[in-house]
Write a structure and sequence with these properties.
Layout: E1 8-14, E2 24-30, E3 34-41, E4 46-55, H1 61-75, E5 81-86, E6 91-95, H2 104-112, E7 118-125, E8 130-137, H3 138-147, E9 152-155, H4 156-160, E10 169-175, E11 178-185, E12 188-196, H5 200-213, E13 223-227, H6 234-240, E14 246-248, E15 256-257, H7 270-277
Parallel strand pairs: 2-5, 4-15, 5-9, 10-13, 13-14
Antiparallel strand pairs: 1-4, 2-3, 3-4, 6-8, 7-8, 10-11, 11-12
């Protein structure tokens, strides 16, 4: 079991069966908001476990992260792979023709301000000819290095924008108090942005404002939702009242849902199955 600390809010904790004979792949999504863990079987390609932890105010994030990582390492030190997806807000997408690697830090500082406690990283998304420049808190990166000998890392956005999209669509991933919105118009990526919210109306406001900004019609554009949202909620209802074509994102057909997770809506982790299935 993962450690329970008063400074770390546990939203879900459905750990994988450590007695399983299957080799296990581990996906870790790290953000300013918290940690998501998603276990899949390497052989059967099934989702085997799912955990969501949200940082509380005044957390010592480094201590929190290392305790969790050391605990899951103790339960199984034979992971076939460990994939870390950074999902920090401090990210800028720069088209190849405008990119100058010497200006990466300057661009991040211009948009998000100076931050000497983070390290800068970047990735090239060749299908879009876009560089994703982003920051990772140095103590978070150190925690991963202290706990895992071998892991791969990438920014979630770099994978989420890789595939081609047909037409107009808004994809919205719902986290605790944060939404991540990806907007496509005429198959072209227009926006990837995270927004904070405190109530359902905030989410509707942000998405409607995006529609106005990019001249998209809420009555016709498809809105696809994933993450922590259910139909029987004020959050869903506030969006349903504004968008006629609204639905949940289906999980990747490459990942099956195991019995221990079947009681949860599939869209809770459909965005995670995309991250598992996609490589840069």
């Amino acid at each position: 079991m993962l450690p329970q600390k008063i400074y770390l809010k546990t939203v879900f904790n459905i750990p994988f069966n450590s007695n399983s004979k299957d080799d296990i792949d581990l996906l870790i999504e790290l953000s300013n908001n918290g940690i998501i863990l998603y276990w899949t079987s390497d052989q059967s390609k099934k989702s085997e476990g799912y955990a969501v932890y949200v940082f509380e105010e005044n957390d010592n994030h480094k201590t929190t992260i290392e305790e969790i990582f050391k605990s899951i390492n103790a339960s199984n030190n034979k992971y076939t792979s460990v994939k870390v997806c950074y999902n920090y807000k401090e990210s800028i997408l720069v088209p190849e023709k405008h990119h100058d690697s010497n200006l990466n830090n300057e661009m991040l500082s211009l948009i998000y301000g100076e931050d000497f406690s983070s390290v800068q990283n970047s990735e090239f998304v060749n299908t879009k000819a876009i560089h994703n420049i982003y920051r990772v808190p140095a103590n978070h990166k150190t925690s991963i290095e202290n706990c895992f000998n071998n892991y791969s890392s990438v920014h979630s956005t770099s994978l989420q924008i890789k595939n081609e999209v047909d037409g107009d669509i808004i994809n919205c991933i719902v986290y605790q108090e944060i939404i991540k919105v990806m907007v496509y118009k005429k198959s072209h990526l227009q926006l990837v942005q995270q927004y904070q919210y405190t109530g359902p109306n905030d989410v509707a406001y942000h998405v409607l404002n995006i529609c106005k900004q990019f001249e998209l019609n809420p009555s016709s554009i498809p809105l696809r939702l994933s993450g922590m949202i259910v139909k029987d909620s004020q959050l869903y209802q506030s969006l349903y009242n504004c968008f006629l074509d609204i639905d949940f994102l289906a999980p990747s057909n490459q990942i099956k849902i195991a019995d221990q997770l079947s009681h949860l809506p599939n869209h809770f982790f459909s965005h995670l199955t995309e991250l598992v299935s996609c490589e840069l």
